[in-house]
UniProtKB/TrEMBL annotation:
Enzyme class, spelled out: isomerase
Pathway: Amino-acid biosynthesis; L-tryptophan biosynthesis; L-tryptophan from chorismate: step 3/5
Species per Swiss-Prot/TrEMBL record: Thiocapsa roseopersicina
GO biological-process terms attached to the record: L-tryptophan biosynthetic process
CDD domains: PRAI
Gene of this entry: trpF
Name the record gives this protein: N-(5'-phosphoribosyl)anthranilate isomerase
Domain N-(5'phosphoribosyl) anthranilate isomerase (PRAI), first and last residues per copy: 5-200
Catalysed conversion reaction: N-(5-phospho-beta-D-ribosyl)anthranilate = 1-(2-carboxyphenylamino)-1-deoxy-D-ribulose 5-phosphate
A single GO molecular function term of this UniProt record: phosphoribosylanthranilate isomerase activity
The enzyme's E.C. designation: 5.3.1.24
Keywords, sorted A to Z: Amino-acid biosynthesis, Aromatic amino acid biosynthesis, Isomerase, Tryptophan biosynthesis
Similarity comment text for this entry: Belongs to the TrpF family.
InterPro entries hit by this protein: Aldolase_TIM, PRAI_dom, RibuloseP-bd_barrel, TrpF_fam
Alphabetical list of HAMAP family matching this protein: PRAI (MF_00135)
Length: 209
């Protein structure tokens, strides 16, 4: 089974097209205004227009109100929701969409407890902990902290780029990887060569061994 790829923080049509052409599985839109990669609902709707079959549109929220999330869903054809704050599982499950929960890898995090708490999620996304930012840190965490038993069900994020993603996949063997800053020219502006290089490195990994 190949490793799935989501590219997050897309803000431009050219970048969406480049990601699709490179073979990405999912496209992520950030609905968190403080982020330099944030987009409006109108912009995200326009960027979703014309997405081909089997490319999933993902909406990322950080402690947004239910009203804000529903207003976004009324405008944007999102297929998967990604919750990146301190959202309760009941909130995450209340929008009639499949969802994943981001877990920031604090030093004292109990992944077994998080898996149990968010058992209705399609999966957990493991990201680097930064007390000042909910995500997009550009820093990796210690992959050895991920128990082998749960690795096939998680999405790995945090500081991934073309130089380290192959090693990450070989060591962790996650279901998928999530990249944003690692394929950028500047925040919110993707580098198309970096996208292609990242996808090539993922596809070159032989995970059957």
């Amino acid at each position: 089974m190949r490793t799935r790829v989501k590219i997050c923080g897309l803000t431009r049509r050219a970048d969406v097209d480049a990601a699709v052409a490179a073979g990405v599985d999912a496209i992520g839109f950030v609905f968190h205004p403080p982020s330099p990669r944030a987009v409006s609902a109108q912009d995200a709707r326009d960027l979703c227009a014309g997405l081909p079959p089997f490319v999933t549109a993902v909406g990322l929220f950080v402690d947004a109100s239910p009203e804000q999330i529903r207003a976004t869903l009324d405008q944007v054809p999102l297929e998967l929701l990604q919750f990146h704050g301190d959202e309760a599982p009941e909130l995450c499950a209340s929008f009639g969409r499949r969802w994943i929960k981001a877990v920031r890898m604090r030093p004292d995090i109990d992944l077994a407890a998080q898996l149990k708490r968010y058992e209705q999620a399609a999966g957990l996304l493991l990201d680097t902990f930064d007390p000042a930012r909910p995500g997009g840190t550009g820093q990796r965490f210690d992959w050895d902290r991920i128990p082998a038993a749960i690795a096939p069900s998680i999405v790995l994020a945090g500081g991934l780029d073309a130089d380290n993603v192959a090693e990450a996949i070989r060591r962790v063997r996650p279901f998928g990887v999530d990249v944003s800053g690692g394929v950028e020219a500047s925040k919110g502006i993707k580098d198309h060569d970096k996208i292609r290089d990242f996808m090539q490195r993922v596809n070159d990994v032989d995970i059957s061994r």
